Amino acid sequence: MMSNLINYSLSFQFINKRQLSIILSLLLIFFVTLSVAISIGSFKLSILDYFAGNLSQLHQKVLLHIRAPRVLLAALVGASLSLSGACLQGLFRNPLADPGLIGVSSGAALGAALTIVLGAKIIPSYLFGPYILPFSAIVGSATVIILLFAFTKGFGVKSMIYMLLVGIAVNAFSGVGIGILTYISSESELRSLTFWTMGSFGGVTWDLILPAALTIFFAFLWTFRISRKLDLLQLGESEAYSLGVNIKRLRFDIIISSAIIVGISVSLSGMIGFVGLIVPHLARLFGGVNHNYLLPASILTGAIIMIFADLLSRVLIQPAELPVGLITSAIGSPFFLWLIFNMRKK
Amino acid sequence: MSIVVNSAFYSVKDLEIVKDISIEITPGELLTVLGPNGSGKSTLLKLISGDIIPTKGEIFIDSEPLKTISIKRRALKRSVMSQSQQIMYDFSVKDIIRMGWLNDLKNKNNFNFLNILKDVSSECKISHLLNRSINNLSGGEQRRVHFARALIQLKNDLNNQDNKYMLLDEPTANLDISYELNLIKILKKEVSNGIGVFLILHDLNLALNFSDKIALLKEGRLVEFGQPKRIFNDKTLSKIYDTPISVDLNSKRVNYY
User: Fold this and answer.
1) pLDDT at A174 exceeding the cut of 50
2) Chain A positions in Cβ-Cβ contact with residue B88 (cut-off 8 Å)
3) How far is B165 from B154, CA to CA, in rounded Å?
4) Separation CA B206–CA B58 (nearest Å)
5) What is the pTM of this model?
6) CA angle A179-A81-A174, nearest 5°?
């Protein structure tokens, strides 16, 4: 099966052997990180012990119903944000695009917050059940991406600054929205609202993760179809068109898939900044800029980094917990400065 | 069989940029488009490539209306080199040229690419640049790379029976004279192999010496269209450029200073 996979990957000849070995190593590191993160915590629970049957009933429960879903969610969210960052950086031809920075995440958060506070009064719960939250988050992030596109269209490379400014405005607007909602919310609504601003992977259950994982997985597959077209898009929109790329269709694909994966991620974990910005740049540093490599490499790197960030948030100040968004921002903001500094040199 | 522009108009808001232009690009001919700045040359090219849609009039490629040809099939029939844009990420020159290799989009296994890449890059004199990053090249070198990409786009083996066309917007901008001549030489060779070329230029002498047909544009209108010898004369050119210009058809020289 492995050799099949290799042949399949090499048949797209724009992923070279070096890039393929990077992706396979990342895959290996991912599985190692996953098992380590499941094992470490306030209880030490080795995954090996679980398979050997050496764990007590309680420990098994902790592992299966608390630790494992949490670590998997971290991986899922890291992968989603990074993939969406890579796609948006390609679509906007702009290295500063990041779902958090340009307001896509906060759009999702506003969508979710609106549903938490007002939704119950308007939408009967039997309509969407627990999925109303992810759904409204997706609507929120899609709205922001479409807005961004309308505002930055036709500005070419200069749109870089423009897009960040629009992002600031969107972030501020969502901030106001969430602020107002916080003000009018009840005690219990307030508790779930604060969650959006800093992000956390705690308290997630399988019945929320599984459908999310499935949807995100299909969104991943959807994006892989377009990776070569994203390469061509880097020549400019009309050049890509003259090479046979249906630009409107490509835009639609990216906007919808990004909105879905960011919306679901934010609805399950709150706003977590900078991962979508940094990870694609890291992946480019490892192995190259072509999207056939960049997208899978970003997914894996993002998952690994997020599992680590979540691990830090759980163990740094045990038994309490640091918000994971705090950790990613602490690592991400210096990197962001470095990026801007480097661009100025160019 | 040819590309036919049938009385095309294009306007943005109230501004008419292209007014009633009818023109034909024939396989095996080099058509040069000349005209002062803002005369609608690039807009005409975009209309023919399908990048923008005429507000009135119609365009046919080999008697098929352009609007009924799918975007993918258009890419097989014609390649376009426009005034290039900055590329954000560090693609190599080879990556950029490969973007013109349409067989990739079909995921067809192909072993021809490397051979064709070798031929085209030595023809365009960029073999030594293949592994460099596109962003580290000079403006002229980047133009040569994009030209090679437009060239390779027509070398795909996906539909060999159709006519093929190249639409080029000032491909010689930023090129020194030796590369300029080299580019024209390549174009002449492609034309003799049956490709139809639509070439926007500013150099009147190049146009006079190498074109099979010339189109003269002014203020969005087609002023003259035909063989260089027939339409190049002092009066027409001086009027188009609002500058005294003299043409010597025997030595094939245009003088304007």
Assistant:
1) yes
2) 93-95, 157, 234
3) 8
4) 30
5) 0.87
6) 15
